[in-house]
Amino acid sequence: MLGNLTIGNSGTLSLSDAVGGDLVLKGNWTRNGSGAFNPKNRAVYFNAASGNQTIAGTTTFDYLILDKAAGNLVLGNDITLNQTLTLSNGLINTGANKVIITSTGSIARTNGWVFGNLQKYIPTGAASPTFEIGDASVYAPVSLAFGSVGTAGNILASTLKPNVAPAAGTPPAGSGISQTKYLDRKWTLTNTGTVFDNYSATFTFVAGDIIGGANTASFIVGKKDGTTWTNPTIGTKTSTSTQITGATSFSEFSIGEMACVNVGLTSATATASPICPSATTTMTASGLTGTNAVVNWWTGTGGTGTNVGTGLTSNPVGPGTYYAYATGDCGSPVQIQVVVGAKVDVGLTSATATATPICSNATTTLTYSGLTGTNALVTWTQNADGTGLTYGTGTPSSPVGPGTYYAYALCVSLKTPPRRKYYLDKIELIYEGWNFSGTTFSISIKQSFH
User: Fold this and answer.
1) Residue 26 bridge partners (DSSP)
2) Which is nearest to 79 in space by CA: 131, 24, 116?
3) Which of 104, 111, 157, 444 would bridge 384 by S-S if both were Cys, CB 3.0 to 4.6 A apart?
4) How crowded is residue 3: how many other Cβ atoms within 10 Å of its Cβ?
5) What is the DSSP letter of 170?
6) Distance CA 435, CA 422 (A)
7) What pairs with residue 245 in β-bridges?
8) How many CB atoms lie within 10 A of CB 327?
9) Residue 375's pLDDT is what?
């Protein structure tokens, strides 16, 4: 038929039951009001060589074949396919309307696609529909693979280039997608009545959709539900497609590289400080943020000097000044200084009896001098290891009779000074070497009568 076809308000168009009873239409299709169309399992061809053809009035077809070398098939209302929609050449431009594929319908595609809204019936089981959609110039389908559909329903799909303010195609803030390296394309899928466990979706695009030299191997997907953005698990990626897996709802999808977050570091502290001169401790950083951010520990500012570790915890270090130096793909490095303080080792110069020798029934006191060390304290003890009876702390001691006593100096350190023995008739300093006993140091003063 070379011209337009109109089914009037009270009219009926029935295609022939005979073989060859298809309708080839070069003009526009209009179904007015209550006009009826009975396709009888026959096809309607829209194949004008050029220019747009239109369909006005909600219509159900059994078979529709689109084969246009130029121009689109433009919908003024929804159309429904009970059998097969054949897309040989040309686009179906739906506008605000949609193409509906029923439970018995399907799409056979060669070159064309639906520019706008395509709705497909989703059966129960492991359904795997492909939505043959695109925009005015690009075919950008989305393919779904459901784990299991418990209740059949319908999914409506569309895709377009955003081209919205403030910058053409820029993904919305909050999507987790880079504002400079992304796809100038989004997909929208809407579910009506389909109950399922989960699905994967593969979004297909073209090189012309890629903005800013984005690396498709680094793509993530932003999924918008209402005002909330999430980033689904990514599956297979190619140079022209990105897959998500394990999704449980349908919404709006955008794709691009992950947004670059400036490096940040909240704090850095030493596990212990101060420590003894020969002791070691570690340092820990917290609050590290930023794309590909990492912490290196240095002895100098600005990432200089000696590296003493990489990661949130440093290697063991002694007393000194260190720097947690955080770097990442975006933003300036962040540096936090950590000072590991040094304790003073215990030291004791001398220990003497106030009087010596003394009578067997007399008493005297003991004194020391030259005590040094962090939190150092002298306790007068019966034994060299600080055990046994005690005779006071500090100087002088409690009154003591003839015997052997020890000035036992304690502080948190790793080494002890030499022990010193004292006899009542003379002073004799005997260096017995360094003795480590946890965090305790001792000096002994031996007293005896002759």
Assistant:
1) none
2) 116
3) 444
4) 9
5) P
6) 19
7) 233
8) 18
9) 80
